[in-house]
Amino acid sequence: APVPTLNAEAALQDGELSLAGSWGFSWGRWLPLDQIGSADLSVDRVELPNYLVDLPIEGLAGRDGIVRGHGTYLLRLTHLDAAFVRPALSMRYARDAWQAWWVDDAGAVQLLGQSGQIAENAEDQAMRHKASLLILPSTSQGGTLVVYLSAYHSNHSGLYGDFTLREYDSAFRLILTDLLVRTFLIAVGIYATIQNMVFFLRRPQETTLLLLALFSGVSLSRAAFSSGYVDYFIAQPYWSIFFYKVEYILIFWPAIAGLQLLLGFFPVRSGRQLMRLTYGLFALAILATAIAPMSSVTAHLWAYQLALLFFTLLCLLTIIRGLILRLPDARHFLLSATPLMMAVINDVIAGQLASYNLYVTEYALFLFLFVQTQIQSARFVDALKTSEHLSAHLGEEVALKTRQLRLHNELLTEQAEDLSHQNDEIKLIAETDHLTGLLNRQTLDKLSELQFQLAIGYRQPLALVIMDLDHFKAINDTHGHLVGDECLIFVASFLRGYKLRKRDIIARFGGEELVILLADTDLDMALSMAQDLCVNLAKTPVRGDHPDITLTASFGVAELISSRANSVHQLIGFADQALYQAKQRGRNRVSAYTRPAADRRSTTPGAV
Ligand SMILES: Nc1nc2c(ncn2[C@@H]2O[C@H](COP(=O)(O)OP(=O)(O)OP(=O)(O)O)[C@@H](O)[C@H]2O)c(=O)[nH]1
């Protein structure tokens, strides 16, 4: 069949001409350029979009089912100069290396451009531009467009439908627009990567932030690698295989990272083992992709997409489980992950049909990343604010608590002091006689026993004086009991006013009987003291309302060594005997206990 012809002027609508439609095609040959114009050139007819694998080429498929080969595409264009001022051919989605020529009606030949190094062997070809903008000679009225397609490593190789003739300016604007959108995506990726990284460095325990940073970083690289227009400006032919392979690996990596992110929020049992296994498989996939020839990598696109679908479904299941268990965040994850899921499905279908790919996945991925980054960083900032707030208020709080504690301590100390006072008081009440304030009988018993033991131990004298008021009953009877009490109080203060040593004890023995225990005092000293007391008491009128009353008392004195008393009890008894004697002798006097002469041999007590 002859080379198909397209009337540019007639086909042009809105300044754009699609080259989809009938093309001439020669399989397995790169037709020499000087044959293009010859009348006996015969070609097959194919329709664009065209993929070699869909061609009915029998017997060319290898054992692996992949058709290998190369060929020449041809299209005659007429009335070009009438349709365009500066026609430009926009070539996209030719998956293998190509070379384009223009042979005008006069037979002049011009190389329009090439994607890199074309070769009859797939591994030898070097791809540079996946997209190209070729400028056609604007002076040509007509000519033939010749595209040599290199050997291919993709089962969807060939010329795709996105071949258009445009005015150069509008075509270039399209490239710039695409570039701008991609630059925007890449900027979002850089932003998300840096933001997550910075926040992670400030709070290393938030591994989610690191994961998001990694996620954004890799997606960013993928967006950069897979952009035909980035290729157009920077890619080098010998890097093409590497970029191609990286792009394949990155097909399903986002779903794995997404799974890890989600498992962080909605943990499952043996989630760690699952992730370890997943990353193990991922490492194997990287290894296999790295060592396999490019043709076999592209032949297994379905496997990469299957992995993408599988891990995406796992992500979805994780979110659904979170929703069922009513875990926090499940809703917003479902919201931000839904477009991602849909985009993934779109990507898988588009990849398998090899139809026009809108890169929806990438846009959705970046959207997802951006939203997640903002949500996570909002949480992070919240946490940061809370911790700053806490640390700012901690000082104040500590100072306040310290103050409260100190107050509390002071209160406790006061209470303890009160208690100790109360104790002292109780002790005082227990130890003293409430009327006179002198020591009571029990205390006297305790202390006198102690003094007795000390005196024995140190072989010191110990004197005991019992004093009994004379005719006290008469005072009570005459003046009343209350006056009697006042008299007792007066005697007590009289005794207290008398110069006694600290060790000496004055106690109320009972009724109107008082005892004075004098440590380290012999009989003579005790007698003289008692005498002194006796004389002075008789001279001293009762203070207060009853100066008319003058009291006298009788005194009985006994001393430990001279009396040879063998207990306090006995010593008291001896003093009592002496007192009795004093009373007998007429009262208001002092009497000492002396051992009777008979007793100096026997033990019968007596008083003098
Ligand atoms: N007001 C008052 N009287 C008391 C108290 N204890 C004892 N008496 C009185 O003291 C008096 C003691 O009387 P007696 O034992 O007969 O001895 P007395 O009248 O002092 O006579 P002699 O001791 O023999 O000189 C009694 O009338 C008791 O009621 C007291 O606490 N207050």
Summary of the model, kept short:
With 608 residues, the protein is an alpha+beta fold. It contains 17 helices and 18 strands. 53% of the residues lie in helices and 15% in strands.
What does this structure look like?
It is an enzyme of class 2 (transferase). Its EC number is 2.7.7.65. Keywords: Membrane, Signal, Transmembrane, Transmembrane helix. It comes from Reinekea forsetii. This protein is an alpha+beta fold and about 600 residues long. Helices cover about 55% and strands about 15% of the residues. The radius of gyration is 60 Å and the shape is rod-shaped. Guanosine-5'-triphosphate binds next to β14, α13 and α14.
Structural class by sheet pairing and helices: alpha+beta
The proportion of residues forming helix, as a percent range, comes to: 40-55%
- The total beta strand count reads 18
Query: Which sheet architecture does the biggest sheet show?
Result: 7 strands, mixed
Number of helices: 17
The best one-word shape is rod-shaped
- Roughly how many Å apart are the termini? 171 Å
Q: Give the oligomeric state.
A: single chain
Low-confidence stretches: 232-237, 354-358, 600-608
* Strand portion: 15-25%
Transmembrane segments: 179-201, 208-230, 242-265, 277-295, 301-320, 332-350
GO molecular function: diguanylate cyclase activity
Domain GGDEF: 460-595
Organism: Reinekea forsetii
